[in-house]
């Protein structure tokens, strides 16, 4: 069933993901809830909203480009609630005049008490000498499972930022995704980070042209997308 796709998407949020809403939202006192969801899941969200339940509350699905835009829609009162990851909560905290609140934590049924579901492991060649530890990564080549993926993208960017290997990710002139890509591009000489760097094909092409070294190690650098054997 299509409805399962949406439910699985929500369940796939990291164990410390959460539901977001603005402070004036009063859970249990509204008959209509404007739920912000990614554009590609709108069909599934509308199907879920059409299901008959015992609750008199009605769900209205609000489309957004990504979780960042959902936060902006919630801030502007164009939506009431949405699902976010930890990094989104941090970004939300830095938004001007923000008044967000977290009212529900999302965990997996299998590991309800776990802080995370799995950890990433970086694999290097046995003959590679990292004389200065992790700082020696500067200028090396790197392969990732894909843009936005947890182990191959989110975990590395978070760890590298925490260790001070990469600098600020808060350039206001750049989107959150481009801040991350710029950091990877500056750190590694060549890499392969496949996937859609933006839901907008024009922006996706623009970013891949701007940071071409992040596609140089891919099977088809000019495509830099799935499927890719590397």
UniProtKB/TrEMBL annotation:
Name of the molecule in the record: Transferrin
Domain Transferrin-like span(s) in chain numbering: 33-230
Domain of life per record: Eukaryota
Taxonomic classification: Eukaryota, Metazoa, Ecdysozoa, Arthropoda, Hexapoda
SUPFAM superfamilies: Periplasmic binding protein-like II
GO CC aspect terms: early endosome; extracellular space; plasma membrane; recycling endosome
GO BP terms: iron ion transport
Keywords linked to the UniProt accession: Signal
Gene encoding the protein: TRF_0
Signal sequence extent: 1-17
Keyword Signal included in the entry's annotation: yes
